[in-house]
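Quick one:
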Amino acid sequence: MPPAACRHTGRRAAARRLAAWACALGLATLAVPAHAAGIPADYAPLVLRPSGLPEHAEFDLGAALERARRERKRLYVYLGADDCRYCRRYEAFLDQHAAELAPHFAADWLVVDLRSRLSVRADAVFLRFDGRRRSFAEFQSEIGDERGRVLVYPHVWVLDGRARPLMQMPSGTGTFQTVPEQLEILRLEQ
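Output:
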């Protein structure tokens, strides 16, 4: 084969390899689920991933509290685990009812999505704001949360811009998974 033909064949082979790689990458991208774990995008969540893993999971709520005060909004703080089936159920419920619920959230609430894993236990969760780090138990005690030291995923707090609780919240499976129940919470009806 003449040298020019070899260069041509080599280029074609490289182009075919590149095209095959691009096709495989495209198919891999299609394989990613349309909805990743967490609060659906329709709710414009502020997603916070923890620092300090794997020893502990520390969530810094400082910027969220500042933003809530600046925008005169309340905080809907959702602690969900990426590998929690009850969290996926609640998130699917929110996704399914976004047209009905998202406008109510947007009007008065800043949604904060704290991403965790089931392996992260209560004694390893820390919340930081106002220049201070609090353990999960300290935070629960500080805000008078009757659920105490028990961490059940999903976990929700409704707070004002100073991190004061606005109402006692249920947690775990099957909580507020109807539109009327969710709206009662957003209206702070007990």
